Amino acid sequence: MKSKNSNLHAAKNIKDDEFYTTYDTIESELSHYIPHFLDKVVLCNCDDPFESNFCKYFLKNFNILGLKRLICTSYGYSAVAGTQFSLSNNDNRPTGYVLDVVKFSDTLGEISDDEISEILKTPNTIRKLNGDGDFRSEECLEYLRACDIVVTNPPFSLFKELVTEIMRYEKKFLIIGNQNAITYKEIFPLIQNNKVWTGYRFGEMKFRVPQDSKPRKYRYWIDATGQKWRSLGNAMWLTNLDNKRRHEWIALSKLYNPDDYPKYDNFDAINVKTIKDIPCDYYGIMGVPITIINKYNSEQFEIIGEANHGSDNEFDLFKPTINGKEIFKRILIRRKV
Ligand SMILES: C[S@@+](CC[C@H](N)C(=O)[O-])C[C@H]1O[C@@H](n2cnc3c(N)ncnc32)[C@H](O)[C@@H]1O
User: Fold this and answer.
1) From the CA of 333, how far away is ligand 1's center (Å)?
2) What average pLDDT does this structure show over 136-155?
3) DSSP letters along 194-235, please?
4) What's the pLDDT band for 157 if we cut at 50, 70, 90?
5) Model pLDDT, residue 333
6) pTM of the model
7) Residues 301, 334: contact at Cβ < 8 Å?
8) In sequence order, what are the beta bridge partners of 198?
9) Most buried in the list 1, 23, 228, 312, measured by CB within 10 Å?
10) Distance from C-alpha of 299 to C-alpha of 307, rounded to nearest angstrom
11) Are 140 and 259 in a shared domain?
12) From atom 15 of ligand 1, which residue's Cα is the shortest distance away?
């Protein structure tokens, strides 16, 4: 069904924000954090309750997780806004809506799809917001303050703003982003200071995209049902919920030698080509691929900074070159033990 808001969303130029996460992507990541959700208020604040698999996952597993409350807010400019819920208002403003549930089923285990459809149709389960559902709006920040954990896939263009708001209110979160965000000045210090870390899936993720998405040469396809898809090779989960991954130690087997581990031209650190090449007997600063962030254990290593352009922010210490040749950006680490 075509959304009355499709023109609005085109006008707002948020097409690149419309990547819908698969149920499998959510379920497999969430499986690592089940105990964190007991008696918690979960907020999905970029999530249309009719379309988002985050909303579906938490409704389905509401009683298994032992949630206290689930709140999902949609965005009025979204491509799917208003397709399944009447948003008629007099002045034609883009309006968001909110699903807000506490106990809603006596089922002990998983709640069925049919029951979820019924819940979504129940009067007052979903109601219109006053504004467009922007997660930065005061009424949505009210939900943020009321929640314990934010779980969503936000528009990548607003990723750092969402993380900043979540940290401002000292909330827990588990959200999807693009790995490029690791070196943002708003995100990097949080990783460096062990306030946030990556989840499990790091790399490939596929997403449903709206029917009016333009074809692309790469990482785009249409399935047998006509659904359009795109994939990213550098997606990630970012979180401040503790997980086992961040406590696993990287097994180090290589020995340092100056030929295999040359120093940078302009900084006293050695270059390490891949994570598996990190030498077990070097205690100075090492430049390693950015993927270290998904393997790194803060008991084993400390993060010193990044080597990117040498000027992006105070953590970007130098532009990595060896014998005049430029090297791809690096994370600078040092052994702790
Ligand atoms: C990457 S999509 C993901 C949708 C859903 N979270 C999922 O994973 O399937 C991001 C969603 O956020 C919505 N959005 C864009 N700007 C927003 C804002 N300022 N506040 C809240 N939601 C926004 C978009 O319309 C889009 O539906």
Assistant:
1) 34
2) 98
3) TS-EEEEEEEEEEEEE-TTPPP-SSSEEE-TTS-EEEEEEEE
4) very high
5) 98
6) 0.93
7) yes
8) 238
9) 228
10) 22
11) no
12) 155
153 Cα to the center of ligand 1, angstroms: 7
Looking at the structure, do residues 230 and 101 belong to the same domain, yes or no?
Answer: yes
Q: Within this chain, do residues 177 and 278 fall inside the same structural domain, yes or no?
A: no
Q: How many CB atoms lie within 10 A of CB 44?
A: 28
Q: Which of 212, 244, 276 is the last residue of a domain?
A: 244
How far is Cα 250 from Cα 27, in angstroms, rounded to an integer?
Answer: 26
Length of the chain equals 337
Distance 119 CA to ligand 1 centre (A): 22
Q: How many domains does the chain contain in total? A: 2
Residue-number span of the structural domain to which 291 is assigned: 248-335
Q: Amino acid letter at 171?
A: K
Q: Please report, as a single letter, which amino acid is at residue 24.
A: D
* Statement: residue 159 has pLDDT above 70: yes
Q: Is 288 found in the same domain as 209?
A: no
At residue 14, the pLDDT reads 54
Burial of 256 (0-12, 13-18, 19+ CB in 10 A): middle
Burial of 164 (C-beta count, 10 Å sphere; 0-12/13-18/19+): middle
Alpha carbons 318 and 308: distance in angstroms, whole number:
6
Residues 144 and 234 in one domain: yes
Q: Taking residues 25-42, report their average pLDDT.
A: 98
Cα 66 to middle of ligand 1, angstroms: 26
Nearest CA to ligand 1 atom 9: 20
**pLDDT-derived band of residue 85, with 50, 70 and 90 as boundaries?**
low
- Looking at the CA of residue 207, tell me the nearest atom of ligand 1: 9
Domain boundary among the residues 244, 278, 308 is at: 244
Nearest Cα residue to atom 22 of ligand 1: 46
Q: Which of 80, 115, 112, 108 is nearest to 94 (CA)?
A: 80
Q: Report which protein residue has its CA nearest ligand 1's atom 25.
A: 78
